[in-house]
Design a protein that fits this description.
Layout lengths: L2 E6 L7 E4 L11 E6 L2 E7 L20 E2 L7 H13 L4 H8 L11 E7 L10 H9 L7 H8 L3 H9 L3 E7 L18 H16 L3 E7 L5 H14 L3 E5 L7 H11 L4 E3 L5 H13 L4 E4 L11 E7 L16 H12 L2 E6 L4 H8 L4 E5 L10 E6 L13 H13 L2 E5 L8 E4 L16 E3 L4 E3 L6 E3 L13 E4 L3 H11 L5 E4 L7 H12 L5 E4 L12 E6 L13 H13 L10 E6 L5 H8 L2 H15 L5 E10 L2 H13 L7 E14 L2 E11 L4 H10 L8 E6 L6
Parallel strand pairs: 8-13, 8-14, 9-11, 9-12, 10-11, 12-13, 15-25, 16-23, 16-24, 22-23, 24-25
Antiparallel strand pairs: 1-2, 1-4, 3-4, 3-5, 6-7, 17-21, 18-19, 19-20, 26-28, 26-29, 27-28
Helix pairs in contact: 1-2, 1-10, 4-5, 6-7, 7-8, 15-16, 16-17
The structure holds adenosine-5'-diphosphate and zinc ion.
């Protein structure tokens, strides 16, 4: 039978049947182009009998147009696509799009033009600009744009030099292979604890079986060095490795260590790759020549030819959860992928998610522990600063004990880090005269003042305006008051207290690109910064040996609001940022400013008693039927038309399923009732583990026809409750 059923990359279409032209074979997983009306669609040949659809009269079938020159998607990957779509109530096509995520790669090998100095005298005048370029471009090769950047001249100058014969074009294959990582390049000496853990993981890689691990190691224990050994083992076996990192812009430190260990950088995958880099990486991953891939969560869905190991580093991080499109959690999907691929997966963290710890304590994951810091460094001492007793001066946010500790470090020439998870200068700006509050026109959120860029910005949709010089409401000049602190304001306070201190603000605004992050790290390591003021961006990965003081400006901040994981997240953030202190020879100290010294999470942080915190949190989750003991799902209906959104929510509410193993809250306006110009209504579903949550939700939603302007988003195991 030469009929095939395609999963087409268009969520609005179901599976479609085609016939194969004579002599063409297309096993399941083959990527093809097929005609659809006057258009062409990309599709994947799916396994016989696994996609529902009508049987078509075979004589009416159209033939597929072309088999694309990429390896067929493997069986484990096809099962992963099905599982992900099913679990997260997403369209199969939307998941498949994350696999075929480089349009260019599907077209087969390609070339591009690069340029370099020709070495000849050339013709024409030697201008100062040309001279500059000749000096700067020795040994360089790249596109005109890249070379213009290197030489700091315009692209026009370089094009002139091409015409004059000073610079020559050459054709290079976009898909040139990546240099292979060398597993024996530099093998570190592991501590006995590290060696025990790494031996276990190396064995698991050799065994080539599904094996999930929780690598639970304190900050500074050398988790990276430890998991590099199973990575090396996979490379020796000729298999691929995927390392997922939460914040790809800040992988500098990781890349340095990787290159030290393996002699070459890994293959990178993240959203800001250029399209040529993307297709090169995609093709190398698909044909198996990319040995070790380091990526953001989207790297999880790539078509690895020969995957042997998955590492999820900082596995507790919220950024592994995608909150738009297919709302998946890369941590959980990694485990599923390992299961389908029959390989080990390692979730590494100093502050694992409660869900992961639960899996370890029930024996589903094997737990591996690194209980102490590498090289004899000790964990920092933690001290609470009770803000109800020790008050900062008026208009200030740093209480006397924290100021004294900063002063002490400055005197000793050591570094300090102040943590506040709020970008900008102040979270709210209002008019002193009329009380007008600056709100985003597209979102139910305040505009945040950024003094460094002199803008008011919405942190939800990115809307920006200049800071007005008079009130938008009453017209009074110079009357804006900043309410509450952001990191920029804390940095100002430090500068006022200690004018000689060198202060750096570290947030996604100031370290947005890998280059700026690298520059910041070089400065901090080189001792050019005394005080770092940063958001959650500085809580992970950094290793500054001279940093001996961490101040948490407001530990209560994360506990406000309706987030079901607030306590856990506060614990993780504070424990992680505390973990930046005293990583070198000098011991570290952590001061936590709080108004709630008796809150369980704060008390546990002070006592350094992680187990006590997790036990209390486990009980609370049990009582609330929250994960891992019960499950949550959010359904958000949104429309640009408020009435349409509300009406649809009411109608859906009228047909809510009535079952005793789940209950449904809502509809109610979502906490962010307006987002990017769309009005949002929300249902929250809380289910016992016995309920088939996805099936219930699908059945409930499928019975409705929503108007075209209405969007329905389903979020299974949500992390965001706005
Ligand atoms: P973690 O990720 O567990 O917080 P790191 O992996 O950052 O800890 O390790 C802390 C520091 O100790 C790093 O600078 C790392 O290079 C160093 N280190 C850890 N293990 C070793 C080892 N076996 N040999 C040499 N240096 C090590
Ligand atoms: Zn906005």
């Amino acid at each position: 039978m030469n009929r095939v059923r395609l999963l087409v990359l268009n969520a609005a279409l179901g599976p479609l049947d085609y016939k194969l032209p004579d002599g063409v074979s297309a096993p399941a997983g083959t990527v093809v182009l097929a005609p659809l009306g006057p258009r062409t669609v990309t599709g994947i040949v799916w396994d016989e009998g696994r996609l529902p659809g009508r049987e078509f009269d075979p004589s009416k079938l159209r033939a597929i147009r072309e088999v694309l020159p990429v390896p067929p998607l493997s069986e484990p990957l096809r099962r992963l696509i099905e599982w992900t779509a099913d679990y997260y109530c997403a369209a199969l096509a939307s998941v498949a799009r994350m696999v075929l995520s480089s349009g260019g790669a599907l077209g087969g090998p390609a070339t591009m033009t690069e340029y370099r100095l020709s070495g000849s005298e050339g013709s024409g005048r030697m201008t100062p600009q040309r001279k500059l370029a000749l000096e700067a471009l020795v040994g360089e090769q790249g596109t005109i744009r890249e070379l213009a950047g290197i030489a700091s001249v315009s692209e026009g100058v370089l094009r002139g030099m091409v015409n004059a014969g000073l610079i020559e074009p050459l054709t290079v294959a976009i898909d040139r292979p990546f240099p292979p990582a060398n597993p024996e390049h530099w093998v570190p000496e592991l501590s006995p604890d590290q060696a025990e853990v790494s031996d276990r993981l190396v064995k698991a890689v050799a065994a080539r079986e599904y094996a999930p691990f929780l690598l639970d190691g304190v900050t500074g224990s050398g988790k990276t060095e430890t998991y590099f050994e199973p990575v090396a083992e996979a490379i020796r076996q000729g298999r691929q490795v995927l390392v997922l990192l939460p914040e790809i812009a800040l992988t500098e430190n990781f890349l340095v260590r990787f290159e030290q260990r393996f002699g070459t950088p890994p293959v990178l995958w993240h959203s800001s790759l250029k399209s040529t880099e993307r297709r090169r990486a995609w093709r190398a991953i698909a044909n198996g020549t990319a040995g070790v891939v380091v990526g953001a969560r989207s790297a999880l869905f790539l078509p690895y030819a020969n995957l042997g190991l998955i590492i999820v580093d900082e596995a507790h991080e919220v950024s592994f959860k995608q909150d738009e499109g297919v709302r998946y959690n890369a941590r959980d999907v990694s485990v599923m992928r390992a299961r389908f691929e029959k390989i080990p997966v390692v979730l590494a963290s100093a502050t694992p998610a409660l869900e992961s710890l639960h899996m370890a304590s029930t024996g589903i994951y094997e737990r591996l522990e690194l209980p102490s810091r590498f090289g004899g460094a000790t964990l920092p001492k933690i001290r609470l600063v009770d803000l109800t007793q020790e008050q900062p001066g008026s208009g200030r946010w740093l209480a006397p004990p924290l100021v004294a500790a900063l002063e002490d470090r400055l005197a000793k020439g050591e570094q300090s880090l102040l943590f506040l998870n709020r970008r900008g200068f102040a979270p709210l700006t209002l008019c002193r005269n009329c009380g007008h509050r600056y709100q985003c026109p597209n979102c139910s959120a305040w505009m945040v003042e950024h003094r460094l860029s002199a803008r008011l910005a919405c942190h939800h949709c990115g809307h920006e305006t200049a800071v007005p010089d008079k009130c938008a409401e009453c017209g009074e000049p110079d009357c804006l008051v900043a309410c509450g602190p952001g990191v920029e304001r804390i940095a100002d306070e430090v500068a006022e207290l200690f004018p000689e201190a060198r202060v750096a603000v570290a947030t996604s605004d100031t370290l947005g690109s890998p280059e700026r992050a690298a520059e910041f790290i070089a400065q901090a390591e080189g001792g050019a910064i005394d005080v770092i003021v940063g958001t959650q961006l500085v809580t992970k990965g950094f290793h500054f040996p001279e940093l001996t003081l961490v101040g948490v400006v407001d530990a209560d901040l994360g506990l406000e609001g309706g987030d079901l994981r607030a306590a856990e997240r506060t614990y993780q953030q504070v424990a992680q940022v505390a973990g930046r202190a005293g990583r070198g020879a000098k011991p570290g100290e952590v001061l936590i400013q709080t108004r709630h010294t008796d809150a369980p999470v704060i008390a546990a942080l002070e006592a350094g008693d992680r187990d006590a915190f997790y036990e209390a949190e486990t009980e609370a989750r049990k009582d609330a039927g929250a994960p891992p003991f019960g499950r949550w799902a959010a359904i958000i209906l949104s429309s640009e038309d408020e009435r349409e959104a509300r009406a649809a929510a009411m109608r859906l509410g009228d047909t809510r399923p009535d079952q005793n193993d789940l209950y449904i809250l809502g509809p109610a306006p979502a906490p962010l009732a307006l987002l990017r110009g769309r009005y949002r209504y929300r249902f929250l579903v809380n289910a016992r583990r016995s309920a088939n949550l996805q099936k219930v939700i699908r059945g409930w939603l499928d019975a409705h026809d929503f108007p075209p302007g209405l969007r329905v988003g389903v979020d299974i195991d949500p992390y965001s409750f706005v």
